[in-house]
## 1
Amino acid sequence: MGNRARFVIIGADAAGMSAASEARRVDPALAIVAFDKGGFASYSQCGLPYLIGGVVEERGRLIARTVAEFAERDIAVRLGHEVTAIDPAGRAVRVRELASGAERDEPYDRLLIATGASPVRAQVPGLDLDGVFQLDVMEDALAIQGYLREHEPRHAVVVGGGYIGLEMAENLARLGLEVRLVQRGDQLFSSVDVDIAAPIDEELARHGVDVSLCDSVLQACRGEHGRVIDVHTSRGRCARTWCCWRPAPRRTPTSRGRRGRGSASPGPSRSMTTCGRTCRTSTRRATARSTGTG
Ligand SMILES: Cc1cc2nc3c(=O)[nH]c(=O)nc-3n(C[C@H](O)[C@H](O)[C@H](O)COP(=O)(O)OP(=O)(O)OC[C@H]3O[C@@H](n4cnc5c(N)ncnc54)[C@H](O)[C@@H]3O)c2cc1C
């Protein structure tokens, strides 16, 4: 990359790669490199429930642009590379190649933190059991698909009646599973008014989904072979299951933390930088960006 100015991006999904494309448009000479700890770049997380349900036939259809296509535009994408720290004074990021464990410093002139949001995992016993999943990234969806193929479960409990929970209930029912949807609040999809949520209940009932409102999962229980067999809920209901778990809220680099103005980034080295509403960070030449609903 020689003496070209270097734009480094942490996180190669929607926010990171749209920024990379825009940067390429405005500056054809810029050296651009994006690091992502995951195995996939620039894909639609929104389609993951439909990949599991078979509506999307294969995962490649969720990928907006491949690593090779980015390379054709002189944008380097390094998957399986986690950024573990930022050195603002030295203008470098520390990168760990996850396959080998090898670490190196990568210099930057401009830095974008596009590490998205991290789901907050609920403190419920049994969530580590085989058969309990959280749906967040492509790897989670592939693990759920693999489990469905291998074990052919007949019952599922979906925890959380937000849009992802609803999409999972829809897709699992489509696959022929008996689905129970457990929602803590007194209505599904709590971000809309009651009269809008009511038809959602009816539609789910039409698809045979058993909705349990004002209920929450207290424990996932072990069955044979260490696999989840049922869940205990606050309304005292048990269900044969495997679970799909998608807790909220999510924390993003741009979300405001409990400490008031600005919050620690959930990405590389929590203490490294803070940012406010404008996405400016406390680190010179570093910006934070996140897309969507996070
Ligand atoms: C199942 C599901 C369904 C969804 N459906 C919808 C929908 O219908 N409509 C909608 O608007 N939104 C939807 N969303 C939300 C949407 O996908 C996100 O808002 C969007 O992906 C955010 O993009 P992002 O680039 O900001 O963050 P992310 O997509 O989270 O990308 C951040 C990237 O940073 C990487 N990363 C994090 N830390 C590091 C590090 N230290 N080093 C290197 N890499 C790092 C991660 O591996 C990740 O690839 C859905 C999300 C999920 C999970």
Note: The chain has two domains: 6-118+250-288, 132-247.
## 2
Amino acid sequence: MHYEECPVCNTEMKEYTETIDWMGPIAEHYATCPNKCYSYEYAYGYTTVQITIRGHNLMFGWSYSDDKKTLKAETDAIDAVLEAARHAQAEDSIIQDADQAQRPQESR
Ligand SMILES: [Zn+2]
């Protein structure tokens, strides 16, 4: 079994696949980042991708019957959001490090 990495933070994602014989080779497939920044879900011909940037949840999706133009618009948007999410995480970790350096005594 292969594993997938979170496209935002590169952590190995938790995956779940269920095969239902009459639905085809893969009927349901879920992958969730343990840090909750990305999740992917495929079920009953419909794909849902959720990306979280600083607590804001963005959701994308398409169905197997959508045309290629719709699919490309969604995947292009996902690429842009993933890039923004990676930048946001990198910035936040720099800010957090600076915070901790300035206030070493403070406990959260
Ligand atoms: Zn992640």
Note: The two ends are 40 Å apart (CA to CA).
